[in-house]
C-alpha cells in the first residue's frame, strides 16, 4: 500500500473513531466512574473488537451479513439491549461518589474489557463500514496478506489510541474539576445517554 493511500485510510479511520456514539459513552463511563486505567482497558478491548470486524471485512466473511440478515438483526438488537441494560444499571445504582482507590480490582478491569469489546462486537454496521472503506483502497491484483494485516492493525491502533486519549483526558478533567462530587448528575446524564443510544439503534434498524 502506498503511503498516500495509507494516510487517507488512517484519516478516515480517525474521523470514524472520533464520531460520538455508544463507544465514547462506554469509555467515558469507566474513565469517569473508575480511573483512566479502566478507560484504557475498555479502549484496548474496543480496538480489538473493531479490529475483528476489519479482519472479517478483509476476509470477505462480512458477506454473511447480507446473505443472512437475521445475523445482522440479532447483533443490532443485542447491542441495543446491551446499551439499555447499561443505562438502567447506571440509573439504578447508588451514587456515592467516585472511589478510584477501591476500583482497581481484577473484576472491574475484566468488566471494562467486556463492555469495551461488546459495544464494538455488537455493532455489525462496522463490518459494512469496513467493506465500503476497504473497497476504496484494495486492489485485488496487489492484495497480499501483509497489506491486509497493515490495514487491520491501522484500524485497531487508531481506534484504541483515540479512546486512550479520551480516557486520560476525561480522568484528568474529573480530578481537575472535582467531578467526584457530581457523580449523581453524571450518573443521570450517562444513564439517559445509554438509553437514548439504545433507542436510536433500534430506530435506525427499522
Q: Which residues form runs of ≥5 with pLDDT under 50?
A: 96-102
Estimate the helix proportion, in percent.
over 70%
Strand segment tally: 0
What is the end-to-end distance?
A: 38 Å
C-alpha Rg, in Å? 18 Å
Largest sheet: number of strands, sense, barrel closure: none
* pLDDT averaged over residues: 80
Strand content: under 5%
The total of helices stands at 9
Shape: globular
Structural class: mainly alpha
Q: Order of SSEs, N→C?
A: HHHHHHHHH
Outline of this structure?
It holds the Pfam family LysE. It is found in: Cell membrane. About 80% of the residues lie in helices and about 0% in strands.
Write the layout of secondary structure elements.
Elements: H1 3-18, H2 22-33, H3 36-59, H4 63-67, H5 69-92, H6 106-121, H7 125-134, H8 145-176, H9 183-205
Helix pairs in contact: 1-8, 2-3, 2-6, 2-8, 2-9, 3-6, 3-7, 3-8, 5-9
Keywords: Cell membrane, Membrane, Transmembrane, Transmembrane helix
Transmembrane segments: 41-62, 74-92, 117-138, 145-165, 185-203
Subcellular location: Cell membrane
Amino acid at each position: 500500500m502506498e503511503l498516500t493511500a495509507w494516510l487517507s485510510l488512517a484519516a478516515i479511520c480517525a474521523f470514524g473513531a472520533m464520531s460520538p456514539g455508544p463507544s465514547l459513552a462506554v469509555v467515558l463511563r469507566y474513565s469517569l466512574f473508575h480511573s483512566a486505567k479502566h478507560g484504557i482497558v475498555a479502549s484496548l478491548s474496543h480496538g480489538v473488537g473493531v479490529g475483528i470486524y476489519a479482519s472479517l471485512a478483509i476476509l470477505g466473511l462480512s458477506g454473511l451479513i447480507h446473505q443472512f440478515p437475521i445475523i445482522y438483526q440479532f447483533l443490532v438488537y443485542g447491542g441495543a439491549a446491551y446499551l439499555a441494560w447499561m443505562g438502567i444499571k447506571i440509573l439504578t445504582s447508588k451514587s456515592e461518589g467516585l472511589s478510584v482507590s477501591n476500583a482497581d480490582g481484577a473484576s472491574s478491569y475484566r468488566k471494562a474489557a467486556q463492555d469495551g469489546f461488546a459495544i464494538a462486537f455488537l455493532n455489525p454496521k462496522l463490518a459494512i463500514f469496513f467493506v465500503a472503506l476497504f473497497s476504496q483502497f484494495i486492489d485485488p491484483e496487489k492484495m497480499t496478506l501483509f497489506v491486509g494485516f497493515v490495514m487491520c492493525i491501522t484500524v485497531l491502533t487508531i481506534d484504541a489510541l483515540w479512546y486512550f486519549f479520551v480516557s486520560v483526558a476525561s480522568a484528568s478533567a474529573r480530578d481537575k474539576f472535582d467531578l467526584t462530587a457530581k457523580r449523581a448528575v453524571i450518573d443521570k446524564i450517562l444513564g439517559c445517554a445509554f438509553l437514548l443510544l439504545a433507542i436510536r439503534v433500534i430506530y435506525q434498524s427499522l
